[in-house]
Amino acid sequence: MILEAATKLASIEGVHGLTIGRLAEETGISKSGLYAHFGSKEQLQLEVIQAAGAIVEREVVLPALEEPEGLSRLEATIANFFSYVERLVFPGGCFFSSLLAEVDARPGPIHEVVAAGQKQASAEWVGLVREAQASGELNRKADADQIGFELEAAMTQSNYLYVLYGDPVALERGRQAVRRILGAAKPKPKKR
Amino acid sequence: MILEAATKLASIEGVHGLTIGRLAEETGISKSGLYAHFGSKEQLQLEVIQAAGAIVEREVVLPALEEPEGLSRLEATIANFFSYVERLVFPGGCFFSSLLAEVDARPGPIHEVVAAGQKQASAEWVGLVREAQASGELNRKADADQIGFELEAAMTQSNYLYVLYGDPVALERGRQAVRRILGAAKPKPKKR
DNA sequence: CCTACCGATCGGTAGG
DNA sequence: CCTACCGATCGGTAGG
Predict the structure, then answer these.
(1) Cβ atoms of A37 and A58 closer than 8 Å
(2) Which residue numbers of A have CB closer than 8 Å to B's CBs?
(3) Domain boundaries, chain B
């Protein structure tokens, strides 16, 4: 419950903008009580990132596993992402989009964790694309890494603009971009 | 010169992470000397944003005006953006990509300035697309707003991943995405 | 532009 | 988990 409050604060102010004092206020626990739990601010930041990862897993990744492997699972995961942004599961929008922009230029252990996590997330998107290629629903000759990049770009941009303007049209543009990207990767129907 | 140092600091730490003390250290001017210039931290932040805007104008927008209106000017502006990121004109990458992510969820005067600036930047991209449509180099029936969104998405994502990993392949993915977006918007050649 | 200073808050610790 | 406290730094001001 401490970590949930911390993820919400950090999604708005960033993991560096998050302070132990503010978190103490928010949770009603004293600062030194929080130090008893986390030991240091950096440890708190790392645990917050981990907790946010579990929330994204629960909101975006896992529910899509009910869909059969292939294009429908890929599309369901994407739909879950847009819904997760739209419902403001984190008040600052997608936690990891914000985090990436915050720490990309700041060296240190958090940078390493985020770079590794981003690499894994990208690999998961590419994996979903490849599954849709394996089932023949997407062209096997398409560049899965490139498609993964373009899908992430559309989702990320939607997230930022939606949070900035509060206007769902940003989400609609992202969904439309996704349709265009996947549409272009569909195999040409064979003439018969 | 003070503002240039400040834009560099802010591109890494953010405009909220920027402190008068750090800037005093960096420039050799005393804190109260800086207050004599800017009056308050918020005023400094606003002037830093304006100074960064002038740099982007100089690096990305203006040089492309030598190209003729239409597709070549659009493509030149995009190429200038990628170059501006690649050369790390700001050590944290594109100043406004970072800024957008930093302030999108924080209400206040800076949020308003950034939202207005982002709206204008988007309108400029869409304007360049429309010019390429007017010259017949892009399909007149294409959705210019949607294309603008997708172009910005590709550029933004490239910026974040390039700064995070330091790997130019992120830029290559963005350039490839741009080619795909513009390629799909080119008019079908008439049969003759 | 400076020195000198303000109260508030930062991350963190002692001792319980 | 708490109270009480530490030195450092924050944004900002007085007075020159």
Answers:
(1) no
(2) 11-14, 16-17, 91-93, 97-98, 100-102, 104-106, 111, 114-115, 118, 145-146, 149-150, 152-154, 156-158, 160-161, 163-165, 173-174, 176-177, 180, 184
(3) 52-185
Q: Which residue has the higher pLDDT, B191 or A126?
A: A126
Q: Cβ(A157)–Cβ(B146) under 8 Å?
A: no
Q: What is the DSSP letter of B145?
A: H
Distance CA B137, CA B145 (A): 17
Residue A66: CB atoms within 10 A of its CB come to 9
pLDDT at B189: 77
> Residue A188: which pLDDT band, with cuts at 50, 70 and 90?
confident
- Give the mean pLDDT of chain B: 96
Domain made up of A52-185: CATH architecture: Orthogonal Bundle (1.10)
If you count them, how many residues does chain B have? 192
